Amino acid sequence: MRAARTNHAWAGRIRTRSNGRARVLRLLLALCALPAVFATATPAHATDTTPDTRATTAAPARGADPAPDTQAAYLADRLRENPVHVTDQLPREVPRSTAPDFARLAKKTGLPTYLLVLPMQNSTDGKELLGAVHDRLGRDGLYVLIEGTDVAEATAYGVRAPAEAALTVTRYELAYDAGPLLSFERFVDVIAQGEEKAASRAEAAREKYRDEEPAEMYIGPSDRQNQSFLTGILLTGVPLSILLLAAYARRGRTGKPALRLMVPGVALLSAAAIALTAPVVFDETRSSAARLPTPAEMSARVERVAAGLKQDPVYADPESPRVLDARQRDRLHERIRDFRRSDGGGPVYISLVPQTPESESAGDPDLFAAAVHAKVGEDGVYIVADPDDGTIDVLNHGLRLDSSHLSFDLPDSLTLGDSRADEADDHLLGERLDRLMTFLDETPRTDRPQSEPAPAAAPRAADENTLPALYSTDFWPGLFVGAFAALLLSGLVAGATWIVRPLWRRRSPEPEPFDRLPFTAPTQPSTSYLRRTAYAELTALGAQFTGPNDRGGRSGDLLDAALLLVDGDPGRTRRPGVDPATLVAVIVLARAGRAARTGRPSNLCCGVNPLHGPAEHRHHVRVSADGNRRRLLPVCAPCHDTAVAEPGGIPGRLLKLPDPATGGTRLPYFDLTDGPLNAVPDGTGRLVDRVRETAGVH
């Protein structure tokens, strides 16, 4: 390889001389090469696609053209050595160890088959490249080009093969992530079917997948995160929903102990079933079809480039289109020599090599340059020029050059190119590299050598295509979301019950059990609802007393206060004339009286919504959705849970009544009136006192 590149540079310099002298020298070179060609050549037939172990090296065979002038000539030499050539530039997706598998598949065509696996090249027409390779190789057969991971082009020369139909089937039937081996296998299967069946299959594939692509074969890291997230949600959401809904269903009721123990058991079994089933359903382990490359495959290209740079400071990737002519190469060699002799200068190494995500450096030119520098073992300026997209990266390793000047003052027209460079096939790399050498000459020198910081390591090939474990990443947030979803579901069930409950209560005048109140009480009750509820509560409490003389104790005081609000007539609650705030006060007093009669006395009523019934303790809660206004209010159990888990949800749970001043606007009950209802946050005892004060009773 080193000798070949030296001869190539020497031959390039010869071509700058007179045409007649160049022809004579090339003729002499060809004549000198003929004995070696005939001495080393061995009979071969293109149908023999058995891989040769020598095919894993990029050096041309002894006796072949030592420095082919074109990309096609180099590739033809590789196919002359072995009909399957796998580049060393795609180890992360297509390691060279896959060559025997490609060769095995190629035999199934029954035709002389020549396969090139190369990086994606935007500036090269695949069909033209195959034609040029065929012309240089001089052998008929089926020529196939795989770019990256897809079968890009195929052409039959001198043989009958349904190449176009096979390409169509491969492109339509397979998902984009099928991988090169599976794509080539599908291509070969169609070729083996013959022209008639292949054409029919191509038409069927085109018709079937015209508007919809096949489903992806692999999932990515984001898909695995979604799976982990969903698993976490189910693992907590389902068991908690069972527990919460069961508790809601049996609130206020007594049941057998065995039934109470069954619910936690069912919840536990559901959690176990989800934990065991999820890994079976989400059983993917890899994100692509790529095989794991060996360390030798990951370093092959860097070693190839480093070996070439030791022989010639301008290394052009032989698998890529030529972007420098002989004059430009000679000019660069001259500029590099001058820079090396300049004050503070040194070696310059130019690598014209494509940088792709599938390469060993994952497309990072800084990482590639650092690896090449380590292999070359000499400090200098390392320039990485991509012949495919035309970008140029410059890195100083150990010279007395101002690295900040190189990093921040390089014009974009040099590193990225301009509109002219974008339109040119060679991206004007020869012209731009010459200007870059001028920039290096003018770069300020420093007292001490400077170097680029070590770049971040590329992703490990072993980890790049391996999916994270199911119980990792977003699984943990999913657990919390599942718990919240269970609470939300129970809230929705309670809301649905609240909608249906009034219909049931119209048929039954009996008041609801205390345990149901927080889940069924509305936040913006209608007047009809308040009238109906006040009448039911007041009559239910009055029915528990045998007569006026039986109204002693706390429950009697509460009943008397409630009757004071309606002038002693429970029927007034059902007639117009009693405002909503008074009706709510009647409901609160009547319910407190019922609680006292049933042995559940409580002086506190929920201050968030008095219709929720008794409260157990006080809590600072947010009472405004617009600001952070807070009040210390007694709260029932559901309001306490909301205040702790979702403080912003409390304003939505506040009891709101129509504003008498506007008639339509609803405001929190404690902001509406100076009547007795404002005493609810201070306890039912204070409410009784306010009722008596208002009525003038002592």
Describe the structure.
It is a single chain. The protein is an alpha/beta fold. The protein has helices spanning 2-14, 19-40, 71-81, 99-107, 126-137, 163-173, 180-193, 195-208, 221-249, 257-281, 295-311, 326-341, 365-376, 403-408, 412-415, 419-423, 429-442, 461-464, 475-507, 517-520, 527-542, 553-565, 580-597, 637-645, 650-653, 684-695; strands spanning 84-86, 113-118, 141-147, 150-157, 314-316, 348-352, 380-385, 392-401, 445-451, 617-622, 630-635, 656-658, 666-668. A five-stranded mixed β-sheet has the order 5-6-7-8-9, sandwiched between helices. Strands 1-2-3-4 form a four-stranded mixed β-sheet, with helices on both faces. α3 crosses α5 and α4 packs parallel to α7. The radius of gyration is 42 Å and the shape is elongated. It starts with a helix and ends with a helix.
Helix/sheet category: alpha/beta
Helicity range of the residues? 40-55%
Average per-residue pLDDT, rounded, comes to 84
N-to-C CA distance: 113 Å
Strand residue percentage: 5-15%
Largest sheet: 5 strands, mixed
Low-confidence stretches: 1-68
- How would you write the strand order of the largest sheet? 5-6-7-8-9
Q: Rg to the nearest angstrom?
A: 42 Å
Q: Number of helical segments?
A: 26
Shape by Cα distribution? elongated
Q: Tally of extended strands?
A: 13
Features:
single chain; 26 helices; 698 residues; alpha/beta; five-stranded mixed beta sheet; 13 strands
Would you spell out the secondary-structure blueprint of this structure?
Blueprint: H1 2-14, H2 19-40, H3 71-81, E1 84-86, H4 99-107, E2 113-118, H5 126-137, E3 141-147, E4 150-157, H6 163-173, H7 180-193, H8 195-208, H9 221-249, H10 257-281, H11 295-311, E5 314-316, H12 326-341, E6 348-352, H13 365-376, E7 380-385, E8 392-401, H14 403-408, H15 412-415, H16 419-423, H17 429-442, E9 445-451, H18 461-464, H19 475-507, H20 517-520, H21 527-542, H22 553-565, H23 580-597, E10 617-622, E11 630-635, H24 637-645, H25 650-653, E12 656-658, E13 666-668, H26 684-695
Parallel strand pairs: 1-2, 2-3, 5-6, 6-7
Antiparallel strand pairs: 3-4, 7-8, 8-9, 10-11, 12-13
